[in-house]
Design goal:
Blueprint lengths: L45 E10 L4 E8 L5 E8 L4 H7 L5 E8 L2 E7 L7 E9 L1 H7 L4 E6 L1 H14 L5 H7 L10 E3 L6 E5 L12 E6 L15 H19 L6 E6 L8 E6 L12 E3 H10 L3 H4 L2 E6 L3 H8 L4
Antiparallel strand pairs: 1-2, 2-3, 3-6, 4-5, 7-14, 8-9, 9-10, 10-12, 11-12, 11-13
Helix pairs in contact: 3-8, 5-6
This protein binds 7N-methyl-8-hydroguanosine-5'-diphosphate.
């Protein structure tokens, strides 16, 4: 069930078992600053250095490299896309060549070559990538840290104050400088408002891997740890209006949405993830995702729940945060 890949806004009905969904798509036509993306049209200038990670189950691979004549490291993340019914209807025809690998009785094994326009790969390019990006995308051992409020104050908080990812992309979205055409819904209220738009991980072409992000307008809420009763109107507003916007646009009811906050997040400006329940999106597991409804419920029971509770999270072994916990003998 894929929507038309046309450049301009296209609405289309998506049939069958899943709810009828209407998706409008526009390509991002606005870039705030000159970056490599302003003129990148092929991988002609890309030189591969090493594979950072490779996941055959998710069908993703992450490569470190560089672009000739461009300073800095590049990370390229490639991901095979989900199948969808609309594309299958158009592509399984005489233009789709088959090469037989073997057959045995009624069983045949083939390589299948659909027309290139139905066979694209999702590519994410990060340039210039920092050391922290390299660590984020490299495959490594994982460790679970049980962070008490004291550990948060003494180790995690000082760490994230000295080392965090740039929030420029968030500012660009909130100031309508980037991804403007991708905005699904906006509530401009400075206290309770947010922008809802497709996550970087979603090409917004089919609802099977629907992944949206609600980014709050209010500054200064770093993560789940900061949330308290005064933020309930904000959280409830995101839940209510986010659900409504998704239902209207994609015809997916709230009971088929997974709405959650990551701990630790990668980006310390509050945002809420909305994914399709049937989609096993990255980062949905218990050690990372906290359901928004549970967060609201906990804060309703105790305003300072997230300042008092122990929160567990996962770190990779080369992350500096892991090294800081290791130094103190905590992992
Ligand atoms: P997170 O919980 O801070 O960390 O989520 P995670 O990246 O480990 O999940 C940040 C979310 O923002 C992720 O789901 C990213 O895919 C998404 N994201 C990151 N960037 C740089 C962009 C961007 O430029 N545009 C959009 N739309 N989403 C982004």
């Amino acid at each position: 069930m894929r929507v038309n890949m046309a450049e301009t806004v296209e609405a289309c009905d998506i049939p069958d078992e899943s709810p009828k969904k209407k998706i409008k798509i526009q390509n991002d036509k606005q870039e705030s600053n000159e970056t490599i993306h302003t003129a990148l049209r092929s991988f002609a200038d890309f030189q591969q250095k090493r594979i950072l990670s490779d996941n055959s189950q998710r069908k993703t691979i992450c490569i470190e490299g560089s672009f000739s004549n461009k300073e800095g490291t590049a990370i390229v993340l490639l991901e095979k896309k989900p199948f969808n019914e609309e594309v299958l209807k158009k592509s399984l025809n005489s233009d789709c060549a088959l090469t037989k690998e073997f057959s045995n009785d009624i069983y045949g094994c083939y390589e299948c070559f659909p027309d290139v326009k139905y066979n694209s790969i999702k590519a994410t390019v990060i340039h210039p990538a920092t050391e922290k990006h390299l660590r984020k995308y490299a495959a490594q051992e994982l460790y679970l840290i049980k962070e008490t409020p004291e550990l948060y104050e003494t180790i995690t908080l000082p760490h994230l104050q000295e080392e965090k990812f740039s929030l420029q992309w968030v500012t660009n979205i909130l100031e309508h400088k980037s991804e403007t055409d991708r905005i699904i819904f906006e509530d401009p209220d400075p206290e309770t408002g947010f922008i809802l738009l497709p996550d970087l991980k979603w090409d917004a072409k089919q609802v099977e891997d629907l992944y949206l992000l609600a980014i709050v307008h209010k500054e200064g809420i770093k993560s789940l740890r900061d949330l308290k009763a005064s933020h309930l109107p904000l959280l409830k507003n995101i839940e209510e209006k986010g659900i409504k916007a998704i239902e209207e646009k994609y015809n997916i009811p709230s009971c088929q949405l997974r709405i959650y906050i990551h701990y630790q997040p990668t980006f310390y400006h509050l945002h809420v993830h909305f994914t399709y329940l049937k989609y096993d999106a990255p980062g949905i597991y218990a050690e990372r995702a906290q359901l928004l409804s549970t967060v609201i419920g906990n804060i309703e029971i105790a305003s300072d729940y997230y300042q008092r509770t122990t929160l567990s999270f996962v770190v990779k072994e080369t992350e500096n945060l892991f090294l800081k916990y290791e130094e103190k003998g905590i992992v």
